Amino acid sequence: MKIPKFTSETKSLANVGNSPLSIQANPSALSLGNRARSNFGNVVANTGNTMVNMGVKMQEIKNATDAQVIKNEVHRVTEDLKQRAIHLPEGVDAENWMNTELLKVQDAFTNGGTYTPPSIGVDETFEEKTYDLGGRTDWNSAVKKSMGSTFLDSNNLAGVAMKKINATRYYNQLVAEADNEKSNLINSVIFNQDTPEGQIAFNQLFGSEEQTLADGTIVPGEEGLLEAKLRLGLYKNDQQGYLKDLREVQTAIAEGFGNNIMIQAGLSVDTEDINVVDDSRSALLEFSDALDDHVVIDDGKGNKVKQHKLFPHMLASKRLALQKSLLSKRKEIRDDFFARDKQKFNQTDRDNKRDNVKFTKLIMKEIDDNP
Predict the structure, then answer these.
(1) CB atoms < 10 A from the CB of 358, how many?
(2) Which residue among 25, 270, 288, 327 is least crowded, i.e. fewest CB within 10 A of its CB?
(3) How many CB atoms lie within 10 A of CB 353?
(4) Mean pLDDT lowest for which of 2-11, 59-68, 165-174, 188-197?
(5) Does residue 142 register a pLDDT over 80?
(6) What residues does 298 pair with on adjacent strands?
(7) Which residue has the higher pLDDT, 3 or 268?
(8) Quick count: other Cβ atoms within 10 Å of Cβ 75?
(9) 253 CB contacts (<8 Å, ≥6 apart)?
(10) Spatial CB neighbours of 296, under 8 Å, sequence gap ≥ 6
């Protein structure tokens, strides 16, 4: 029997010591239990990572929600304040006022309080309201950072809005002051038309050109109120707005003159003096004719046009209506006077007849008493 020497029948697959080894563990050869434990460890690790990521995401969502709630509420309060700022009393700077109020809003958010806007307006028509700004103080650092950014943006945007509101309020204030002065000057011209005061008011309204008096004295020209409004940009459509205002002012003065003359003429009837009545009727006719007085000028386009000497910018329809009123009043005064004169004559005639009857009776009685 041949005894093998294990030299050629076997092949060394590995060497001991410095010899390379090729013996490896085969995963497929692991037991089911080992594989289960390995997979469970991986699942636990992945689940933990997922839970951590979900927690981060949920916190991010919560932070974003809180930040959006704050942003929406700050926007709502700011818009309310903007509307109130438009009606701030004269002399109150809208930008400073808004900054002060927004600091109160921010403090209410930061400390979980409430905020009540101040009552504003001439008639205080803004309803009283209170904003509940969170009622909490546990905002985390991310929300607080977002809150700071929200208020910074809100302050910047509100600042721009307040600058516009300040400009608008200043513009409206100038317009209101100019309109008030215009109204006063119109009344002064109407009720002082034959006095130096009326002429001064007229020049302040429409302006005047430089004049040289007979003694050489130079009277400087004066910018009228309407021209000043045009220069300051107080008309929305500039030149068109200026012409519209000029037309309205001239019309108001013309109608004011006419009303004064008609009122005075109406009172003349009560004097029962035909001369006073005639003078009043003449004044009505004179003013009506003056409204129709005109010159023919070149319009710059080769056309000849009619330009009235008195209140040249007054609408033709307004001018005609005023003339009709003047002439109608003139006829009315004449009719009233003669109606009253006729009544007076009839009354006198009746009195005379009655006196004559009485006198006749007295004579007859005297004859009877003295046959």
Answers:
(1) 10
(2) 25
(3) 10
(4) 2-11
(5) no
(6) 304
(7) 268
(8) 14
(9) 186, 189, 190, 311
(10) 304, 305, 306, 307
**Separation of alpha carbons 25 and 16, rounded Å:** 18
Q: Which residue has the tokens 């927004």?
A: 102
Tokens of 21: 């080894």
Note the Cα 353 to chain centre separation in Å.
74
Q: Is 312 exposed, middle or buried (0-12, 13-18, 19+ CB in 10 A)?
A: middle
What digits encode the pLDDT tens for the residues 159-194?
A: 677 777 777 777 777 888 888 899 999 999 998 888
- Which long-range contacts link 214-219 to residues 24+ away (Cβ below 8 Å)? none
Measured at the alpha carbon of residue 181, what is the angle toward residues 85 and 232, in degrees to the nearest 5? 65
Q: What is the 3-state secondary structure (H, E, C) of the chain?
A: CCCCCCCCCCCCCCCCCCCCCCCCCCHHHCCHHHHHHHHHHHHHHHHHHHHHHHHHHHHHHHHHHHHHHHHHHHHHHHHHHHHHHCCCCCCCCHHHHHHHHHHHHHHHHHHCCEECCCCCCCCCCCCCCCEECCCCCCCCHHHHHHHHHHHHHHHHHHHHHHHHHHHHHHHHHHHHHHHHHHHHHHHHHHHCCCCHHHHHHHHHHHCECCEECCCCCEECCECCHHHHHHHCCCCCCCHHHHHHHHHHHHHHHHHHHHHHHHHHHHHHHHHCCHHHHHHHHHHHHHHHHHHHCEEEEECCCCCEEEEECCCCCCCHHHHHHHHHHHHHHHHHHHHHHHHHHHHHHHHHHHHHHHHHHHHHHHHHHHHHHCC
The two structure tokens encoding residue 195: 């006095």
199's CB contacts (< 8 A; 6+ apart) are none
What's the confidence (pLDDT) of residue 101?
Answer: 87
The Cα–Cα gap between 189 and 260 comes to 12
Sign of CA dihedral 240, 244, 247, 253: negative
User: What is the percentage of the chain residues whose pLDDT exceeds 70?
Assistant: 64
Contact partners, residue 213, CB within 8 Å, separation at least 6: 219
